[in-house]
TrEMBL record:
<protein>
    <recommendedName>
        <fullName>BRCT domain-containing protein</fullName>
    </recommendedName>
</protein>
<feature type="domain" description="BRCT">
    <location>
        <begin position="1"/>
        <end position="19"/>
    </location>
</feature>
<dbReference type="InterPro" id="IPR001357">
    <property type="entry name" value="BRCT_dom"/>
</dbReference>
Amino acid sequence: MYKQLRLIDADWLLECLKKEAEFCIKEKFNEKNTRFYLGRETVLTDIIRQIESGKFDVDPITLPTIKPGDKAIHSDLGRVRIMSEPMVTALKDKDEYEVYLSDLEVSHD
């Protein structure tokens, strides 16, 4: 099995890092902690810049297209060969239609 990427919410991570950086900026003027917070602020600022630049963005995940003739693994049947294009039932205005899956696109509304 291949290694699964762990996707994170970059916006949420940036929000947390920026709050921590703001805290470091305030605390660095405290005489006892100056060097600790200066170093921490620098590291946080560098990480924030790298995330905002897209350095850690992953490539979009491409889903495989199954077509007739392909071999596949079914959860109940095991290894199978695709004999025809998959059909699905589509609902429009309370009417059902059998359509080929390959003729559909994802609607983003």
